[in-house]
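Figure caption, in words: inputs first, then the predicted bound structure.
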Amino acid sequence: MAGSSLMKSRFESFICDANESVAIQLVCSDNELDNEPHNHAIKEFNPEFSHQLFGDNESIFGYSDLRVKLYYSSAKLNCFLSIGFTDKVTKDETNGIEADDVVDTIRQKLSLKLCSSMDEFRSLLSKESQFIPYGKLMDSFSIDWKTDEKQTKRHFEIYSADILVPGFDAYHQRMQTFLWWLIDAASYIDADDERWQYFVVYEKRSPNGLSNGHLHSDAHNTYCFVGYATVYRYYAYPQRIRPRISQFLVLPPFQKCGLGTRLLHTIYDFYVTDTAVFDITVEDPSDNFTRVRDFVDSKNCQKLNAFSVDKLKLGWNEDMATEAQTRLKINKRQARRVYEILRFRCTDRSNADEYKAFRLGVKQRLNAPNQKQILDYQKLEKLKKFPEQELAFIRQTTIPALEVRLDLLDKQYKELEEEYQHIVERLAES
Ligand SMILES: CC(C)(COP(=O)(O)OP(=O)(O)OC[C@H]1O[C@@H](n2cnc3c(N)ncnc32)[C@H](O)[C@@H]1OP(=O)(O)O)[C@@H](O)C(=O)NCCC(=O)NCCS
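Bound structure (coenzyme A present):
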């Protein structure tokens, strides 16, 4: 191999995938820090994203076999960061380029005081059992937890708090550090703003580890942070509010067990009886969240009069929007989506006419923006103010050709049908 290729390949061997090199672990007690596998330890997890810390390539330069471990105490969320590697580049071999300062990058982004040593972290772990969740208990429930080996019952609690609860501000600063690793375009909120409401999920565990159906009196149990959501009370003219769900997170070791669904139910319960609330919206929902929301909203709406099977078959009407908004605080756009999900569920797809009527209804909605552009263009044409050349340009740039439009509609429809089918299946299982 020529000298420069050798250099290049040595150089490349010092580039690590940040999402693989970083691992995050919640620790309930200090014996989980020993090298022995611990039965009840919460599984460590890798970030989904790290581009906001390590750049678009999500890579860290300068180390071989890099292992960065971010420990959180499970209740109080005290933090310790450890870093290990088998080799690190020297400035001499890279013409002065230094290895990335991983610890500093993480420390700065998280804006968090980290424990200075593992001993300090361990000593703080002994105080974990003193932790009492902030705010008001909103929900308390058990889940049958299935793993490959066994099934256990685990206990969870959801609390609601705001920034006026003493101590919660500092706690929120620690909770929000998870966002960088699990949400694509994360950002910290302005927590000084009192219009934020927080909902926090914990697992409640017995002193020996898992909750496992045998909790002690409260003094002996410990809490483990599971996830949280933030909701902003937007003002709606003239005297209503429109709470908007902004951040919504369940940590990976607890995902796909129904906790996100439960958290969303809790948020709805919190606002649904408040007469000042007009409806609840969601900021920039991810696909995973959209599925949870579709499921919860469809499950709730199916009980409403306006969404009875007879009415669904007559097509979308404003009563659906009104009842979903007044009874469940669901906004109109989402109510329309729920209508389509529930109508799809009761559509006999072996009946060609019935199936076609459903498809047409969805495609008409999808096509509405195109229709508007065509009408706007026709208005321009009627004005007779523009020369044909200009009109042709407007037509070409704003209205796609019929064939293109039909193809796109078909594709959009198929994707939607798949999403609806998924929700219908989940509804059938629930
Ligand atoms: C979106 C998010 C909050 C969902 O939380 P969650 O706790 O996994 O949600 P649930 O468990 O209620 O539902 C998720 C899935 O688990 C499935 N599930 C629920 N209980 C289950 C069980 N006992 N066994 C197997 N699967 C189950 C649900 O059917 C659902 O499946 P689907 O995604 O295929 O539709 C979580 O994935 C997350 O935090 N993601 C990263 C951050 C993010 O995207 N946040 C949203 C920003 S708007």
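The two ends are 61 Å apart (CA to CA).
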